[in-house]
């Protein structure tokens, strides 16, 4: 249009072109007004709908912005809470550990009294376990507790001397307890022979069926009466019954003593002590046996003299 108007030299042509343009513009306005009149309802609805959509989008954007701000705030608060919770969790662990240490200290304080009771009742395995556990705790987790220094020295000293008591008990059962059973059996046979009225000589004492340390694994030690099967045992299977007399079964008692010495890590000292005292103990056995035989023979002579002289 501009090119046509600029290239035209005739004013009339430009006026005509201008008139056509104005007429076309007016026609376009009329057509537009007619279309607006015809579609006024739809146009109004579309405008209102568009306005509503725009408002909703704007509100949604504002809400999303607010949600983002809230999320950032929650994130910061959660970080703070996480640090606080971690601190509380660590404090809980520390308090639990302190309570466990206090309980352990309270139990260790009662160890000397319980140890004396176990030693008095000769439950040496339980006493050894208790003593070793207490000393390990005092020299381990409770090493920095200054208030337990006296108790630590006392229990450590008892642990150092504990094996001497166990070795003495072991020797007593090895050499004295076993030979006492032989002596008691001979006395019983002597009493029985004194009741017999004939002059038949008393038979020799049979020691093949007696329980001796050499027969540690034989049936007479571990099987029920009447059973002839042999059953071996080990230190791991030996357990201490707190309700029964610990010396009732001498072989099991010696096994308990050896197990206690093993827990104290004093087996080499035990072997050395047994080797050093072997000759002395055997001489004592011979001396005691000689005395028992002499006393038995004297008693038999007295009984025979009384039978030959009724007055």
Automatic annotation (TrEMBL):
Pfam families: Sec8_C, Sec8_N. Residues 20-117 form the Exocyst complex component Sec8 N-terminal domain. The keyword tRNA-binding does not apply. Keywords: Coiled coil, Exocytosis, Protein transport, Transport. It comes from the Eukaryota. One of its GO terms (biological process) is Golgi to plasma membrane transport. Residues 246-296 form the Exocyst complex component Sec8 middle helical bundle domain. Residues 11-70 form a coiled coil. Residues 289-311 are annotated as: Disordered. Residues 302-311 have a biased composition (Polar residues). The keyword RNA-binding does not apply. Belongs to the SEC8 family. Component of the exocyst complex involved in the docking of exocytic vesicles with fusion sites on the plasma membrane. This is Exocyst complex component Sec8. It comes from Lophotis ruficrista.
